[in-house]
Hints:
Blueprint: H1 7-30, H2 40-48, H3 51-64, H4 75-88, H5 92-125
Helix pairs in contact: 1-2, 1-3, 3-5, 4-5
Amino acid sequence: MRPMKQTANRLLSALFLGSFAVYCTVFASAFAELPLNISSLHQGLLLFSHFIPAFFLELLLCRTAARRWRLLLPALPLLAAGLWFLSRAEWHVMAWVLYLIWCIPPLAGCLAAQLAFSVYRKWKKR
Length: 126
């Protein structure tokens, strides 16, 4: 990895850590009380807000990764946790549906960051 000397890299790191902290807070507040009685807005945040930290992390990796295989690093924790979840779940179809719902937003964030970075690189070459 290249050193993080640039201000943009530090800003992306701060945005990733801040958005990840907000997501963790939203997640913890949803499961603080049982039975679950959360609003539909809170449910939407739980399902789709991890797009944002994944976007900032992937954008940071696009800027700092010397080797392209490192761009897959955000997907590895999803894969490991998902495989563990699928191996433990008894409801196979429901487990796959939940796994896909859980994985689509961060993977979409990674793809959006790669697209944004490629557009930025083409724009910068002009």
